[in-house]
Amino acid sequence: MTEEAFVELAPVTGIQQACRLLGKPRSSHYRRLRPAPAGQARPPRPAPPNALSRAERDQVAAVLHSERFADKSPAQVWATLLDEGVYLCSESTMYRILRERGEVRQRRRQAQHPPRVRPELVAHGPNEIWSWDITKLHGPHRGVYYDLYVMIDIYSRYVVGWQVAARESGELAEEFIAEAIARIGVAPRAVHADRGTAMTSKPVAALLADLNIDRSHSRPKVSNDNPFSEAQFKTLKHCPAFPGRFGSIADARAFCAEFFTYYNHDHRHRGIGLHTPASVHFGTVEKIREERAKVLDAAYAANPDRFRSRPTPPTIPGAAWINEPPATTQIS
Fold it and tell me: How far is CA 231 from its chain centroid?
């Protein structure tokens, strides 16, 4: 498609302008005009006339390997020789010569960490996968913080549990998760979190193991592995009523109680078809969609010219993913 557009555009705008507009390198265009003969590879690029000869390159390598400079970087060697009135080549050429010999590497042993497993979780309905995290709320004075624990269902976006505590600990996290499960009355298939100390603590691990709930953790320093909790915290802290600081832990708890009631029952979430999390979590979506469809049908019947096509209410996704795999490897 790009080549066809280029053929049409080049006679009008010129080759340079056509390449710029289509994002096509001019070198690719000219190379296409001079194809290599069939069955033959393109000739190697000739060495520039100002390149170092083989003898000169060997001399530079010998200097770099010498006892005097064996433990110094090319930058140190280049500057030292220059101060002595000697110029062999540029610093980048020294690196190039060493690279050709496979001698550019870390001198010290480097720790080799095995790659972390990319978490992949899918929920096809409420109470299958929960995600939780902890965020800091500013207290009345500098250095005073309260810890907000929030557990969210990734399919419905319903906040199944929250608490504000004066500190972060594994014991409090264990109580928080146990209370959320008791309140909802059902345990999820898996609970996802990042790798904070409370999330990876022994009390939490023991609780989930006892309840036969799978544990899942984000990779280190990969916030996208916990997108639902991160997005929920953004909604919280971008709320117009969210204060910069809370006067006390009681103030923080009072605000969160009001906010999460609003979030669950009044906030229309785009990720779930502009329904409220409570509607999705407790199964009233279809009834609401039917009523929305009636309103849109009436609007279309009254003024069809105002619409490009018959409007329909938005749908909710059939599944909610944490790190959806490529389409060719998706599992049901």
Answer: 12
CB 129: neighbour CB atoms within 10 A?
25
- Under a CB-based contact definition with an 8 Å cutoff, are residues 18 and 10 in contact? yes
pTM greater than 0.90: no
* Domain range for 83: 54-100
Between 149-153, 164-168, 308-312, the lowest mean confidence (pLDDT) is in 308-312
Beta carbons within 8 Å of 87's beta carbon, 6+ residues apart: 81
pLDDT digits (tens, 9 = 90+) for 239-280: 999 998 999 999 999 999 999 999 999 999 999 999 999 999
Cα 151 from Cα 173, distance rounded (Å)? 11
How far apart (Å, rounded) are the C-alpha atoms in residues 95 and 100?
A: 9
> Where in the chain does DSSP place strands (E)?
121-123, 129-138, 145-153, 159-165, 190-193, 214-217, 320-322
Looking at the fold, whether 89 and 154 belong to one and the same domain comes out as no
Provide the pLDDT for residue 332: 47
**Does residue 75 sit in the same domain as residue 174?**
no
Phi, psi angles (nearest 5°) of residue 329 = -120, 15
Cα(239)–Cα(243) distance, integer angstroms? 9
Task: Decide if 245 is inside a domain.
Answer: yes
- Residue 84: exposed, middle, or buried by beta-carbon count in 10 A (0-12, 13-18, 19+)? exposed
Handedness of CA 136, 137, 141, 144 (dihedral sign): negative
Measured torsion, CA atoms of residues 217, 222, 224, 226, in degrees rounded to the nearest 10? 30
60 in the same domain as 25? no
Nearest to 331 by CA among 116, 122, 117, 118: 122
| Ramachandran category for residue 102: left, alpha or beta (phi over 0 → left; psi -120 to 50 → alpha) | left
- Tally of structural domains, the chain: 3
